[in-house]
Amino acid sequence: MIDSRSKLTQRFLDRSFSCRLVTHLNYIFHQSLVTDSMEIRELTVEAERREAVPILRQLWRDTDPADVLEWTADDDYRLFGGFVAGDVVGVAGVLVTHVLHHARHAWLYDLVVDESRRENGYGTELIAFIEEWATENGCEYVALASPSAKEAVHEYYENRNYKKWGYIVEKELY
């Protein structure tokens, strides 16, 4: 059964992709998109998240695997995986938030495609999915932070109409 209100579903069906909606726990529905190359779905159980840890550690190299697994289990954090032939090839982790003067938005904490699978469009598919998911969940925008030295990453997002509006400063307290 396809929810006709779903912009994401319609967009992918319009491109001759197939879509299936699966009921999941307390959600009204849980989307799983199957494209010609990649299936994207939320990773909700520990075994699925554990499978994504090696890819997440390509982004967070200095983080212990147990710590990565722990923060992916946070109730408000959503982790989506992109699968090709049953293998996780990329992940996107978001948190919907409404902070101070900012509108409700999806903060993209993690977007990483396995090093051996990059340059195949999987990251772009994951971003498109997150943008549509965020829209369907009442977010006005998607935001993220990127290290200042990662100029290629900045260009990647700018080419996708993300706007640089400031910079982030931080101070380590321990």
TrEMBL record:
Keywords: Acyltransferase, Transferase. The keyword Iron does not apply. The keyword Hydrolase does not apply. This is GCN5-like N-acetyltransferase. GO terms for molecular function: acyltransferase activity, transferring groups other than amino-acyl groups. It holds the Pfam family Acetyltransf_1. InterPro entries: Acyl_CoA_acyltransferase (IPR016181), Bact_Acetyltransf (IPR050832), GNAT_dom (IPR000182). PANTHER family: AMINOALKYLPHOSPHONATE N-ACETYLTRANSFERASE-RELATED-RELATED (PTHR43877). It comes from the Archaea. Residues 38-174 form the N-acetyltransferase domain.
